[in-house]
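Troubleshooting log. The previous structure file for this entry was overwritten by mistake, so regenerating from the original sequence record. Sequence copied from the archived sheet and checked twice against the printout by T.R.
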Amino acid sequence: MMRYSRIALFVCVLLTLITGIAIAQDSANITIKAVIKDNNGLPIIGANIIDKVNKIRTASDKTGSFIIETKPESILTINAFGYGIKTVTASKGVNEIILIPESKLTPIAFNTVAPEDVPPGVSNVDFAKMFENNYGTFGFENLEAFAEGFNGNGIWGMSQSLVLIDGVPRDITDIMPTEIDQVTFLKSAAAVALYGSRGANGVILVTTKTGSENGQSISIRSNAGLHVPKSYPGYLGSSEYRALYNEARVNDGLTRLYTDEDIYNHSGIDPIRYPSVDFYSSEYLKSSYARYDVTAEISGGNEKARYYTNMGFNSTGSLLDFGEAAKNNTADRFNIRGNVNMKLNNILKARINASAVFYTSKGVNTDYWGGAASIRPDRFTPLIPISRIDPTDETSLNLVNSSQNIIDGKFILGGRTLDQTNPIAAVYAGGTNNFNARQFQFTTGIGADLKGITKGLTFDSNLGIDYSSSYNQGYRNGYSTFEPTWTSFSGTSTIASLNRLGLDTKTGNEVIADSYYRQTLSLSGQLNYNRTFSEKHNVTGILMGGGFTQSVSQVYQKVTNANTGLSLGYNYNRKYFIELTGSRVNSPRLFGKNQNELSTAGSLGWEISEESFLKDVSFLDNLRITASAGILYTDLNINDYFLYEAIYTQSDGTWHSWNDGVLVRTTDSRRGENLDLKMARREEITLGLQGSIFNNTLSFSGNFFRSTMTGIPIQANVLFPNYFTTGFPNSSFIPFVNYNNDLRTGFDLSLRFNKRIGQVNWSAGSFTTFQSSKATKRAEIVANNNLLRQGRPLDGIWGLRSNGFYNTSEEAAAANAGNGAPKPAFGDVKPGDIKYIDLNNDGLINNQDEVYLGRGGFSGAPLTTGLNLSANWKNFTVFVLATARFGANGMKGFGNAAQSNYFWVNGEEKYSVEVRNRWTPETASTATFPRLTTLNGDNNNRASDFWMYSTDRFDLSKVQITYRLTNNVMKSKVFNGLDFYLTGFNLLTVSQERELLELNLGGTPQTRLYNLGVKASF
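Regenerated output below.
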């Protein structure tokens, strides 16, 4: 019913929007015929012309023209998406109206600047504008296709970037995309210096929407979509599994476990007696699941006050389609945000921004996808028909009658001694669970114009208080399962007896558990100075102080950040720029004087296009060269508090018995003292170039960066004599010291194209980020250079080099004996096992033969490219977004238990379709998978290039078609515009390993999302 109610809600919204169109029939005294153009003289289609007093609305046609009848001296408001609002007094002389492209101020560190004044190492995305033709469900979704330097995971290959939402450290999942106005990526050391220790790996500024001074506007957006799984893991059925398990036993010198008759019976003859459970079949899963959302936005204001409100609800379903999961398995989120910006008088201003989120995820008490990836198909029958029980077996029937879980009045839950519980039974009888999360955020600030002290001086402050909590609430029921004993009579299989496993325990008591909270307090204040002297000398300055603290449940120490900073800037005639920044950084993770350091940075800019030798170049609009450098101190590499102290513990000491028989536990040392432990240091230089040509048809920007992180704290045995550590009991007197150094280099590049060709407005962007890394200093003593991590990428993958398989018994025997072939150190090998290369030529295959195999891209692929293309013709807009990633690799079998189960063979674990390509004597020349074994497979199941694969991929991430119904078509007194759009997400992946890259193991499958949306503006 919930599913149908949501569909009905969406239909009602559509009907309400469509039936609300009214036809204007007002008359006026004069007729105005005019054309609306941009500053390049090109017509603007679909611009809204509004006379609020006389309640008249219209819109420009495909030539930019409009006709309106109104009273003389009426005030007409003209607005078009992407342009600033303009007011015109109605008169017969009005025949042409020019709209200027809207130019938002860009947020940077503790300031906002005009787009042309953005400092080096900064990328900005006008998210609200982008969102109009690029509907999304996540704040950072595909932003690598709009911002150079961001690869989808971090900035310039660095992780742990600081995310600030309205100046407060928050998670991007705290807000919905409809709430976002702009996203700014601060990349260079000069751009982040004012944010102290926690901002040293880059800062992402997210600003939420606020109201405008142009009267009230209302918009309602509604979406309905379907998630369709891309693929499911492929696991073998019972018959094939048992046949191959027999083969594995024979390979190990054991006898076959299953008879041919048994294997045949499990091929589907009687799936109740001889089960072959497919967790991914339509018996348990739907073909798709729905997603809905509705958002209402109200904004407006005047010179004194501006307001904005956002209310939204979204709901997402589940693929599970049986038991309790089919009844109620959704995730619902309601959010409300409101803010007010007030001008109290000519000096003071204030702002308040508050939001609340209520999230509830309704589900069941089991990990269905984890079980689907690990439970063999032949282990048990999930549902046993009661009708299959021998009607004369009163004992079994009494057991059934005493069960509290008769499914559909026909079935009991199946199990076996080794599987007394299972995900399917838990979905039916294990109870339900609601995960509840509540989040409250409050941000406020006071600003002042201090021109009474000196012209150009202002004050601003920001206070953020956040609290979020979560807990699980539901019923955790125990349940019994039944293991049948079968018999055959006259060709019919019947259950002769039942073995009951476990107990039904429905207490009716509601359980509330797993509580969690997070609290954040953020405070900053600053003096800003911006003044121009003699119309040529512009001087800027920021004096700030601020910090934040964040605490979470069950963690004693809070995450804190505090610093003061000073930034001074000067530009001459907007041609030559210089900025110097210093920040006093504090870290409570260190001792004494080492808690404070001074971070410094500076940048230079040269508007070279203003020089005489380029000023007359007709096609060049502007060209700027920039350079920056900085030294930043950070405690992001210090993973815990008090690492400078010596630690003694009894928590895992050994026990000793004295003569009186009393056991006493030892006190052991875990590390030594180093009161000189310091913060790591980021040293960086960047060079940049940005500009535009052909009347801003093509704009570009690029940065080269070289960044080193020195003095990263480590606790390394090789730096100290061996008597600093002991074997048993295990003790260490080795302290943490500043030792490791890392190097990152790379570049980012953006190209933007905007031009009207014929009747089509084209807009395109290409954004590329390349980053390489190197461990330039490591504490290591190795026997062979192939093991050195120093000089290798930070995201390096290490393993053995493979050389096919051992193909004959003689070849395997020679290796086991070390007779003319390297001897494996991982146990004896047999034909079909992977053969490795003895890289150090010591006659032994072991971990000393590992070598660097390739980059893992743990902080993003080495090369990331994003492309976006938009074409607008009349009322239609087509938007296409694609991303590509190159240069990284993955390793099959690593990541989680489901990965190893799928790609490796180990004991009695589940077999995937990968084993069909196994080695056998008949397939020795074509096999791509090792022999099967019932042992631990230690020789085969380890890191090596045998399991390596490339993660290079090209993704058609999104396509959206939008139709904008404008006022000149509707002639409505109600609507300003009505948009209908169809969006497809994750449509296509092109890769040599596409099937593998689209596969989720142990979790919810990857999906394509097809979405239909409508937005109405009032």
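Residues 2-19 form the longest helix (18 residues). Archived copy saved in two places this time.
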